[in-house]
Amino acid sequence: MGAFRGAFDIKPAQGGRVPLPAQRRRWLGEFLKTYAVVIIGYAGFYLLRTNFKSAQPFLQDQIGLTTTQLGTIGFLFSLTYGFGGLLLGFFFDGRNTKRIVSALLIGSGVVAIAIGLTLATAKNPFGYLILLWSMNGLLQAPGGPCCNSTMNRWTPRRYRGRFIGWWNASHNIGAMIAGVLALWGANTFFHGSVVGMFVVPALVAIPIGVWGLFFGKDDPSELGWDRPEAIFGEPESKADIVNEGVSKGQILLTYVVKNPAVWFLCIANVAAYAVRIGVDNWNVLYTRQVLGFSDYTAVNTTIALEIGGLAGSLLWGYVSDRLGGRRALTATICLVLVIAPVLVYAHATTPAVVYPALFFIGFLIFGPVTLIGISVIGFAPKSATVVVNAVPRAFGYVFGDSLAKVLLGRIADPEKEGLHLFGHVLHGWGATFNVLIASALVGILCLAVVAFFEERMLRDDRAFTEQKARLDRGSDQDPTARPGAVGDTESEDLK
Hints:
Elements: H1 2-8, H2 20-47, H3 51-63, H4 67-92, H5 97-121, H6 126-140, H7 143-154, H8 157-189, H9 196-214, H10 228-231, H11 238-242, H12 248-257, H13 260-280, H14 283-290, H15 295-299, H16 301-322, H17 327-347, H18 351-377, H19 385-412, E1 419-421, E2 424-426, H20 429-477, H21 488-494
Antiparallel strand pairs: 1-2
Helix pairs in contact: 2-5, 2-7, 2-8, 2-9, 3-8, 4-6, 4-19, 5-6, 5-7, 5-9, 7-19, 8-9, 8-16, 13-18, 13-19, 13-20, 16-17, 16-18, 17-18, 17-20, 18-19
């Protein structure tokens, strides 16, 4: 435990304070170093995650695994990934999350090499793969929340949306590279063996993790700087000020367990994931079997969706910045608009209509998918970013993913009886689209409620900063006043 603290603690710089103008001049250059680590590092996680999808046909042909076995392995990854962020997030909060991301990437790479060795040596690797792939899910689970924590420490509210949104696009890039890298590595170095589809991505990811350990700073205080809000003259979060020195348990209770905004965001994230995964997981099957598209045309529907998602990740965070940090409001607008392309997709019969519909579904649904994570960290102090970000992620990944894959699959399956719900039978592809639209409506309702909470929080932060500034001015004018005790009533009001 002591070694962990030594390696992953935030260590403020010793010495004199750097003047604010100098901090402002140097901020972009120093932040971009850290930003490069979280972008490249998070893309690295996808090299060691999406490679499994590409490897599945080869695991069947070369290793003899069945579709059911592959599904079991993938499901257990989802479980450890969904809940691992919650379990580890509480422990990682307040630590040097940039270094933790890098260490987790190294660990994930080591697990991938172990999978390669297992495939090369074990006669029946199914049980080992369950254990190792589940371990990979656990190691990758805190990656996104830890990246959010680092970016949250570096960015003021006015820039946070765009930078986290642009970072979110790194997973699209990593996912697009993963399959090509895995197959190239297997064919080039392992004579086409599936072993190379795990070992080669690991040999790329591990050096990225080592580099990330030492490049950039996790927190401006490590340079002797102030908080980003002070650097840019922005109102500081009331939650950050009043919770200095408060225990993690109390922060978790106050800002997560007792915070209705977090739970509304959890439900909204389930709804957003249901739409996203519900389209993404079934678009190839639907367009090929129902619409009669060729194999090539059906597979390319995924590209249209991913390009739209990439564009949405790049844009919507910036839009929310321009709207004064109103993430939930922006996400609500996206979910309202996404209903239109979902309806177009449900009635489309040709690629000329399906491709644009999928592009706009990806473009719009990645608004709430990105912004819910940014919104939720605004309701808690920076010392709780990892765990508070992990809560809606866990709900979205476990429940939204399950709804989109399991329930929609049952509804669409012509050989099943469908889903009986409140005296109605949901059956067939038409019913699946109705479920997607219903999910969007639930998300809209929840995000509209959060938008109200968010507006109140923004107003409270501005009022708190103004009051704190008045107290500070009063303290400066009275040299006998004790810091933080300029009138007992006013000091209590700040809390």
